[in-house]
């Protein structure tokens, strides 16, 4: 199945997309997506409930978070009460090793996103501060990347032996599905996603039509 | 637990600035809407709709985002702290159009700080200061609201 | 364009707006923004910029113009723009857009708009709410 693992809705400060409209867009444009994961900035959205939309549109709609660390931004899948109490999701300088350790301890999956991006990408920080041993997976395709960033992500991920996934990083409706992740497994809830990510049988896919 | 955990600003100086400044009017200004400026604006952006290019049109009005160019004497409160760093970046403007603006309108604007928050991006650590200008016309009717995202970074 | 014809997913016809120095100078005068980084390539380059820049609010106004051409007679209710990257005066950008929401009760449509610079980078992204006449 194919999921867009990195999307933002109006819940994010810079998001302008309503989830209902994401669903309509996916169906109207016949995008090859089975669903999406909402990765809202610097927060865990505990109350939004997308189950009705899942039923209405036949899509998997899961919730996660994009947090900020001293090595750049990190996507966290499988957020739970224990994890929310482990570190401050609103901070912009959480120590990356602490975030990764907390995620693993709490049964969640955390991975740096847009690692090839200037200033907020993992690999820019590696140059200055050295490698973080606990990293094993990164987002190698990001729909918001500018030329050169994804290429760097792919190259460095290979160099360090990291697994790679993809996401659109969409903040507006029309950008969903630019990049996504293809899983060998099928699942319908967040536990299934976390298990599939730890299982490692997935790959980043670029769904944009060639210019 | 709160509905969206972790949405409070992280740094103390941002929290303090937010508590002190958000929601309070720190400046007011008046503007007279001049027909020649309305026309020059519309022409310069290639507008062809006669509502914005023809003064004889019954619905002649200012181009929708015209108020984005109207700024008060003060951009920030007089004693606003130097948070976020010395570099300033224009992050964008959001314009709400409540009523058409006509030539000769006397607009009164009040300036407030709508929000302050931090995030990181390609430009590094950024402090966002959202300045809001709310415009009413000579009849005290709301005509426009402009949110301006000013970004500060080191 | 009538409201009844609009569907979510519709693409607005792409445009290549005129951002020549002549147009930018005219805009900066109308907007009281006559600063050399918008109207003088040499000055801008000395500031470390790639050339004189199109003001962000001019790009925003270009998005509004495109909406008016797509749907004559409509009224823009809001236009929210993020200034993502530089747009250099005298280059050839592209504005594209798509309908992302249709409210049948209010006769209001939402559109995503992007002004892409000549080199393919995003200059300005916007979302607009547009009301159609009855």
In words, what does this structure look like?
The complex is a heterotrimer of chains A (211), B (154) and C (134). By secondary structure, chain A is an alpha/beta fold. Chain A has helices at residues 19-28, 51-57, 81-84, 96-105, 122-129, 149-160, 190-199, and strands at residues 2-7, 35-41, 44-45, 60-69, 72-77, 109-112, 137-142, 163-167, 179-183, 202-206. Chain A has a 7-stranded mixed sheet, sandwiched between helices. A two-stranded parallel sheet of chain A has the order 7-8. The mean pLDDT of chain A is 96. Chain B has one domain (10-74, 89-153): Thiol Ester Dehydrase, Chain A (Roll). Chain B has 3 helices and 6 strands. In chain B, strands 2-4-5-6-3 form a 5-stranded antiparallel sheet. Chain B is elongated, with a radius of gyration of 18 Å. With 134 residues, chain C is of the alpha+beta class. Chain C is 26% helix and 32% strand. Chain C is built from 4 helices and 5 strands, in the order βααααββββ. Chain C has a 5-stranded antiparallel sheet with strand order 1-3-4-5-2, with helices on one face. In chain C, strand 3 and strand 4 (108-116) form a beta hairpin. Strand 3 of chain A pairs antiparallel with strand 1 of chain B.
Strand coverage percent of chain A? 25-35%
Question: In the CATH hierarchy, what is the class of chain B?
Answer: Alpha Beta
Structural class of chain A: alpha/beta
Shape of chain B: elongated
Residues in helices of chain A, as a percent range: 25-40%
Q: How many strands, which pairing sense, and closed or not: the largest β-sheet of chain A? A: 7 strands, mixed
**Rg measurement of chain A, Å:** 16 Å
Brief digest:
The complex is a heterotrimer of chains A (211), B (154) and C (134). In chain A, 29% of the residues lie in helices and 27% in strands. With 211 residues, chain A is α/β, with parallel strands linked by helices.
Layout of secondary structure:
The complex is a heterotrimer of chains A (211), B (154) and C (134).
Chain A (H helix, E strand, L loop, with lengths): L1 E6 L11 H10 L6 E7 L2 E2 L5 H7 L2 E10 L2 E6 L3 H4 L11 H10 L3 E4 L9 H8 L7 E6 L6 H12 L2 E5 L11 E5 L6 H10 L2 E5 L5
Parallel strand pairs in A: 1-2, 2-4, 7-8
Antiparallel strand pairs in A: 1-9, 4-5, 5-6, 9-10
Chain B lengths: L3 E2 L6 H10 L3 E8 L2 H10 L5 H4 L33 E11 L8 E16 L2 E13 L5 E12 L1
Antiparallel strand pairs in B: 2-4, 3-6, 4-5, 5-6
Chain C lengths: L10 E5 L5 H10 L5 H4 L1 H6 L9 H15 L4 E9 L10 E10 L4 E9 L5 E10 L3
Antiparallel strand pairs in C: 1-3, 2-5, 3-4, 4-5
């Amino acid at each position: 199945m194919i999921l867009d693992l990195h999307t933002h809705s109006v819940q994010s400060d810079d998001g302008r997309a309503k989830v209902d409209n994401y669903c309509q867009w996916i169906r109207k444009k016949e995008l090859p997506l089975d669903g999406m994961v909402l990765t809202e900035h610097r927060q865990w959205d505990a109350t939004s409930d997308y189950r009705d939309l899942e039923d209405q549109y036949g899509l998997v709609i899961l919730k996660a978070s994009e947090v900020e660390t001293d090595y750049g931004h990190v996507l966290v899948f499988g957020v739970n009460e224990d994890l929310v109490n482990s570190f401050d999701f609103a901070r912009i300088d959480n120590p990356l090793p602490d975030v990764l350790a907390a995620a693993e301890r709490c049964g969640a999956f955390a991975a740096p996103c847009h690692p090839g991006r200037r200033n907020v990408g993992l690999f820019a920080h590696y140059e200055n501060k050295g490698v973080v041993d606990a990293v094993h997976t990164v987002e190698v395709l990001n729909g918001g990347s500018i030329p050169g960033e994804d290429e760097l992500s792919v190259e460095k991920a290979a160099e360090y032996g990291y697994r790679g996934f993809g996401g659109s990083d969409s903040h507006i409706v029309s950008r969903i599905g630019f990049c996504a992740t293809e899983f060998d497994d099928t699942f319908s809830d967040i536990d299934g996603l976390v298990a599939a990510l730890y299982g490692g049988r997935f790959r980043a896919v670029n769904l944009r039509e060639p210019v | 637990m709160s509905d969206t955990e972790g949405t409070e600003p992280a740094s103390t100086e941002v929290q303090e600035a937010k508590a002190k400044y958000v929601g309070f009017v720190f400046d007011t200004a008046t503007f007279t809407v001049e027909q020649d400026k309305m026309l020059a604006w519309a022409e310069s952006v290639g507008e062809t709709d006669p509502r914005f290019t023809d003064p004889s049109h019954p619905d002649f009005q200012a181009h929708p985002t015209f108020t984005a160019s109207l700024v008060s004497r003060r951009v920030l409160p007089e004693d606003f702290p130097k948070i976020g760093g010395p570099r300033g970046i224009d992050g964008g403007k959001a314009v709400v159009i409540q009523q058409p603006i006509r030539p000769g309108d006397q607009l009164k604007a009040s300036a407030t700080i709508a929000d302050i928050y931090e995030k990181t991006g390609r430009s590094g650590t950024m402090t966002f200061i959202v300045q809001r200008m709310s415009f009413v016309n000579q009849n005290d009717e709301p005509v426009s609201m402009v949110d301006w995202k000013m970004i500060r970074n080191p | 364009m009538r409201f009844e014809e609009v569907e979510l997913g519709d693409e607005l016809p792409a445009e290549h707006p005129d951002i020549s120095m002549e147009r930018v100078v005219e805009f900066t005068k109308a907007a009281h923004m006559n600063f050399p980084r918008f109207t003088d390539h040499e000055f801008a380059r000395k500031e470390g910029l790639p050339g004189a820049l199109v003001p962000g609010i001019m790009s925003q106004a270009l998005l509004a113009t495109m909406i008016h051409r797509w749907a004559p007679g409509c009224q823009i209710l809001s236009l929210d723009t993020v200034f993502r990257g530089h747009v250099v005066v005298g280059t050839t950008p592209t504005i594209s857009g798509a309908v992302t929401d249709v409210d049948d009760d209010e006769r209001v449509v939402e559109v995503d708009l992007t002004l892409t610079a000549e080199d393919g980078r995003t200059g300005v992204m916007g979302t607009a709410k547009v009301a159609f006449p009855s």
